[in-house]
What does this fold into?
Amino acid sequence: MQDIMWTRGVRASALATLTAASLVVVACGKSDNGGATMDSATMTATRDSAAPMAPGAPDATMQAVLDELGALKGKPIETLTAAEARKQPTPTDAVKALLAKQGKPTAPPPGVTLTNRSVSGAAGNLPANIYTPEGAGPFPVIVYFHGGGWVIGTKDVYDGGARALSMMSGAIVVSADYRVGPEHKFPASHDDAVAVYEWALKNAASIKGDPTKVALAGESAGGGLAVATAIAARDKKLQMPLAVISVYPIAGSDTTTPSYVANAAAKPLSRPMMSWFFDQYLRSAADRQDPRINLVAANLQGLPPTTIINAQVDPLMSDGEMLASKLRAAGVTVQQKTWDGVTHEFFGMGAVHEKARDANAMAANALKKAFGK
It folds into this structure.
């Protein structure tokens, strides 16, 4: 599934260029250009997590992207093998097509330098993208985890979210590929995420980073990994991240929540696709209850300030809203916002959608506050 990036490994380099372009960074302040906007306290009071809800409807801009995606004639992910799924058309392709129609550039915007290197994972080295903003440093560090349902994502396809966070928060972003299923079953992705975080703590200075100012971020599966890694840091008594940014996270394993039911046939992420992701990555039904997967049932006490970003037209909307409620109940400082009229993967669509730019700004502002900037 990053938020716009459904991966296609064989085309990662080309998609990375597009994804970066889709994140033309615009200073958008604190626009409430999203309809259903609420912090977690308001959300808890006004939305019954068990109550039925109507399906979300894409706004005109979002529908234009979905129309381009439909024209690419991709096959349903849930009918494919993982290898086949990694070659399907993606929302990134759809954004590229829309940008071309609009006469907009696809080259990455200036202001961030991308370098490639290896970092330590739980079972060997992992390829990583390092995004460095302009300036002398040392810079704060964000460890970012891409999406893809622990199956089909890559750091290159999810270039957009990582690049935007670097540019808008003035921080270095470390975005590493991690092992995915079905080749590497649970908890491989989760173990690698913790290992990458530990690498960043130990090696921040070598990449012009400030090891005292480190945060976690991620989208979709990566949004869940960011929260799970913060929990692991607490339990392992590692240095705690200063903040967590969790964008439409997979935060539970219940596919009968109100948003799963209402948005069962949503695109680009549907309920059948989510079930397929669980089947590809998890070893057994018991894994669905592991607190690293079922975050809404985990011990969330002692976590850092957390920002949760959700899309209305998304099976995972209830996951994010319930996680915000659970975090607040555990005493964690939380801000949560659900943007109306947009789908899963909207976070990286800044070149074509104002709401994506607003979401980028919300995340960046939370990070800057945590970093004392």
